[in-house]
Amino acid sequence: MPELRKDPIIDRWVIISTERGKRPHDFVVEPEVTKGGFCPFCPGNEHVTPPEIMAYRDPGSAPNSPGWRLRVVSNKFPALVIEGELDKRGEGLYDLMNGIGAHEVIIESPDHHANLSTIPIAQFVDVLHAYRDRIMDLGKDDRFRYVLIFKNKGRSAGASLEHSHSQLIGLPIIPELVQEELDGAKRHYQMKERCVFCDIIRQELNQQQRLVLENQEFLAICPFAPRSPFEIWLLPKAHHSSYVEMAESSFWLLAEIFSQTLKRLDAALKGVPYNFILHTAPLRQRNLEHYHWHFEIMPKLTLMAGFEWGSGFFINPTPPEDASRYLREVEI
Amino acid sequence: MPELRKDPIIDRWVIISTERGKRPHDFVVEPEVTKGGFCPFCPGNEHVTPPEIMAYRDPGSAPNSPGWRLRVVSNKFPALVIEGELDKRGEGLYDLMNGIGAHEVIIESPDHHANLSTIPIAQFVDVLHAYRDRIMDLGKDDRFRYVLIFKNKGRSAGASLEHSHSQLIGLPIIPELVQEELDGAKRHYQMKERCVFCDIIRQELNQQQRLVLENQEFLAICPFAPRSPFEIWLLPKAHHSSYVEMAESSFWLLAEIFSQTLKRLDAALKGVPYNFILHTAPLRQRNLEHYHWHFEIMPKLTLMAGFEWGSGFFINPTPPEDASRYLREVEI
Predict the structure, then answer these.
(1) What's the whole-model pTM score?
(2) Secondary structure of residue B187 in the 3-state scheme
(3) Nearest Cα to A40, choosing from A57, A55, A52?
(4) Are B134 and B54 in contact (CB under 8 A)?
(5) How far is it, in rounded angstroms, from Cα A114 to Cα A120?
(6) What are phi and psi of A242, to 5 degrees?
(7) Where in chain B are the domains?
(8) Is domain B3-329 in CATH 3.40.50.970, yes or no?
(9) B185 interfacial to chain A (CB closer than 8 Å)
(10) Which residue, among B303, B316, B318, would best test binding to A if mutated, counting the most A CBs under 10 Å from its CB?
């Protein structure tokens, strides 16, 4: 019997096929075709990208030249532009404003073939630091209310360049899905005086059914109502609403579990394209009692089709209890 | 300057690239590869599908044999099952119920190569009648609260069989996106005592900027804040909340404008995959003052990537004003 499961935070239902559950080898993952040729993200080509906004580099090396471990630049084809005023206005019934925002690329490594699932932990820490540093910096611009950090890995997940990179978009409004999550978490808090994510963590550590990995400070779970087969959430065990509140000493542990999680995903579903998204409190909002930052990793294994577009429902052919078991048991 | 535009019904924002707007030939539409081979939807193979639930057939022809113009069967691999009780329950923090529901396939024509954009209008009327008849029939089952009618055309839009068909899923809950739309429309009605869709129709007929086609009773527009390039909505000009309320005399006009719209889409973007979804009032709800049934057609030209997954925002590289002009002017 399939199950209808509800996400405990927002009103999102998924249909889980519990009977003919798809296993990792039931999914056809198209191998990525390496295009080769010129790469604007490789060292030596710094002049091709917009000038760097930030970089972690060797002492003494000059900006926009080789010698960097990680580099952040504006997106050359930005969805939003950084200069200008919002100029909120109406057009009859409709509301619009200028597309002001930040759109940046975080080049995660100078190595063209680097992959987050295999880079050294120290390098992963650089990536996680860069996320924090860019959120902190953009938070100083009052026009922005939210910075969304995300990664598209693989062409079918939306990556147009193969050199490993993440992106961020700074927005003048709080995105709908973020607001829904904040509202859902607040409703739970108002009813129970507890953070819904803390409740989830407690239940998952207790049940062990959907747990993928844990260490002293973090855990990786397949969520109860996942939109995508092998969807994974990474959460800090202690309550923190904003990613930028994370203690310096926690970055290594986060990088370790994140790296391990991606390694396991890659071992279970060789080269699977994925998206991940950092869910954190809006800019300049600190210490929210009802919200809990986390990463959501969404492997690209199913299509958005008419049913999903029309309903907001997802059909997931792999129960998270099965997915987490495959991920725990896979040889890496 | 890109624009941030808000959907007037729900809190959904899109980023419209007004400057480097993509024109039809900027999109690469992968041609569908015809697989050939055995087709379970072709006449003569009726025994391969589950037994027919309904068919429009020649007088005297027997069920589950050739002689039909249109045939509705259960999906052989249903996402939900029709038999059983919902058995709503909790698992600690989580809510779930049995996956009870209807999942049916509407085989639109006996002709394997038929295409909604080229079939005769009378045949299109059959398809539109079938949608109504199935909603009416499933509405008698009190376990169901909503019937979602949708079509996936083309492999990348989610169609696994090429023989032209639509689908329906009958659900024991009102899907999140439908509820959001109902709520948004109700908020507008409470403020203005007018239907938001009627307001949209008035503005679009007045401005003519996003109008694709109109006839006596219907219009096709590119909506102000479309998620997808060349997204099109088809709406009845007169206020009706439920598709099943449509007068018999209106079906021909709807079929005509629907056919013309798909023809134009296909002429502008040769063989483009698409989804369309019928948005109508929940089962057994009639004459809602705030809601207005319509079809939404979403060509598959962009990917859902990390940004879309994380924000609920969409980035649309083609302004609807440009899209509607292309669609109006394309030679068919």
Answers:
(1) 0.94
(2) helix
(3) A52
(4) yes
(5) 10
(6) -125, 135
(7) 3-329
(8) no
(9) no
(10) B303
Answer yes or no: is the ipTM higher than 0.90: yes
pLDDT in tens, chain A (332 residues): 899 999 999 989 999 987 667 888 888 888 887 777 899 999 999 999 999 999 999 999 999 999 999 999 999 989 999 999 999 999 999 999 999 999 999 999 999 999 999 999 999 999 999 999 999 999 999 999 999 999 999 998 999 899 999 999 999 999 999 999 999 999 999 999 999 999 999 999 999 999 999 999 999 999 999 999 999 999 999 999 999 999 999 999 999 999 999 999 999 999 999 999 999 999 999 899 999 999 999 999 988 899 999 998 899 999 999 999 999 999 98
State the nearest Cα–Cα gap between A251 and chain B, in angstroms: 22
Output the CA torsion sign for B258, B264, B268, B273. Answer: positive
CB contact (8 A) between residue B176 and residue A312: yes
How close is the nearest chain A Cα to the Cα of B60, in Å?
35
Q: Who among B97, B178, B309 is closest to A311 (CB)?
A: B178
